[in-house]
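Need the bound structure for 1-deoxymannojirimycin, inputs here:
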Amino acid sequence: MSAAYRKDHLTINLGTDFHSYDNSKTKRKSLIRAWRRLSRLQRSVICMMLILGMLCSGYIVPAIYSDYHMMDNQLDTVGTRNRLNLHDTDRLNTKDQLEFEKNKLEKIEGLKKKAREQLQGIMAKVNAGHKKAVPFGKDELMVPPVGKDRLMVPPVGKDNVLVLQPPINDDDIHGRANEQIAAPDGGEDEDGKKPSISNYDYFKERKENSQQKAVVSAFKDAWKAYKTYAWGHDELKPVSKTHSTWFDVGLTILDSLDTLVVLGLKKEFEEAKEWVQKELTFDKDRSVNLFEITIRALGGLLSAFHLTGESVFKEKAKDLGDRLMPCFNTESKVPYSDVNLRTGKARSPNWGPDSSTSEVSTLLLEFCDLTHITGDPKYEDVATKVSQHLHALPKPNGLVPIFINAQTGNFRPSATITLGARGDSYYEYLLKQWIQTGKKLDTSKDDYVQAMEGVKEKLIRKSEPNKLTFVGELLSGRTFSPKMDHLVCFLPGTLALGHHNGLPDDHMELAKELMNTCYEMYRRMATKLSPEITYFNMAPGAPEDLIVKPLDAHNLLRPETVESLLYLYRFTGDKKYRDWGWQIFQAFEKYTKVPGMGYSSINNVKSLKPSFKDKLESFFLAETLKYLYLLFSDDPNLLPLDKFVFNTEAHPLPIYNS
Ligand code: DMJ
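Answer from helper R.:
Posting the output first, comments after.
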């Protein structure tokens, strides 16, 4: 090596001589010779670069990978979530986002620190031999920037805000609150025992067919695993044998209470009740999502109260309801999406100022029922005002954008229109609110009928080549997309329920067509389980009706299809619906069962060996298994649909005047 090279300690020359050698033996020797010709500093710098390279691939790359993977998992769960854009998301709740962001930053910081420490150690050694060692600053670690945009938060622009509508007169619309408050579902004894409304003895010996027994066995497996590894926590992670925390209220227990009753599992119900009595507290310094905790926890407690008459469930429901009330302190009456259970501080989701339309509109069944059992009008009042407000907003074709602003009370006009994520239960509750009131709340029914007309005109299409009827979306409220979330499969059941309650015959025809499509979304997959999202082919001559993108191919153990099968079976008596449910149940058994640990969501319904997502959603126990059990039941008195209306989380609530 020349003296010129020696002077420049940062210049490294390994290559210039190599090309003069042309056979491999001499190449190896030349490398060794070239290495020897380097100064110690140059050798050290090369070593450090190699180590840095190894650290990058050893730590940073996996970090990036797992980060993406974690994002995938986070966005795929709970109500639902997909990652491509907001139109593809289910309920992206605040807790998920906060926890995800926090984990991500902590993880990357931890990795950066670890890599830095290791490099410093190496540098210390190098420096011991070389006073002129190259300094290594933290900037040189190639950590990818983490931006909020990776969370796919909805863009919010000024022009997205509609002009505030003039306030409306409460009496114009409902006027039922006082009627119902005047007659709370009384009859409660001093000791808090209130007879169940149907006088059904859920814990008596009962005859079950083999299909029901199979569902009970599935439930027990999952319950046992939850009890062993996640008791008192929100949800079970069946693969890692641990738990996840969301609201920190033992969500799986609360969501499962009435399933335990319906399945007649006395021992398990008693232990759940004991936990509620002794352990459950809502006094948590924690922000919760109003919608999710209402449909799952409040709904579960209310149902448990109605089915058993145990006053503890009413007391806990009241406590929770009181803690949720601050959400409704907005000028517009559209509630904030989140509230701190202890401090009562309510706020918009941390990803933007808008709430999801389905979330703000899916509260009235539960809040009415709370008023009904406590005699306190305030719960029904606040939820009724939301409903009145939504009724008064302009809704072309009765269809609603999926975002609404709690401050202004207006829809975001550029938002997608869908009966899937963030839109779904708005439509479901329009019908069910009317049914709950003994068909008194006509504004709600009228909005529902108008919306179904809008669905038929704007969203229903047929696929190619087999003409499957499906429900698409309007992107930005305008552009048709042939995309259908599995969540939309609640619709056949809701349409059938409406028809059963006197709505037009074409509702039932559409219900049957859509039911068939939802079933096909299962039957055509390798696992016989539906993906989270399906696209439908509309091109003439297309070879296959369904298109499933790789990132949409997961299955979260969702209930909507088996829920609709229950309604279709009950109203038509056609055994094919029960058979379809049995096929779906068997597919859950085959592909989502984690040996000895219950069930898990899976990543790919198109693979015969799908990997687990390590999550047992509480709605699998609250909804999916309950609906399957009822579908297979021959007992007409088990939760008759003229006496109960199911909330969107499958918690049965009494129909007034029934
Ligand atoms: C449940 O929490 C409810 O059914 C909700 O309405 C939609 N998402 C899940 C089930 O898929």
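Comments: The chain is about 50% helix and 5% strand. Residues 79-80, 425, 487, 558-559, 619, 623, 648-649 surround 1-deoxymannojirimycin (CB under 6 Å).
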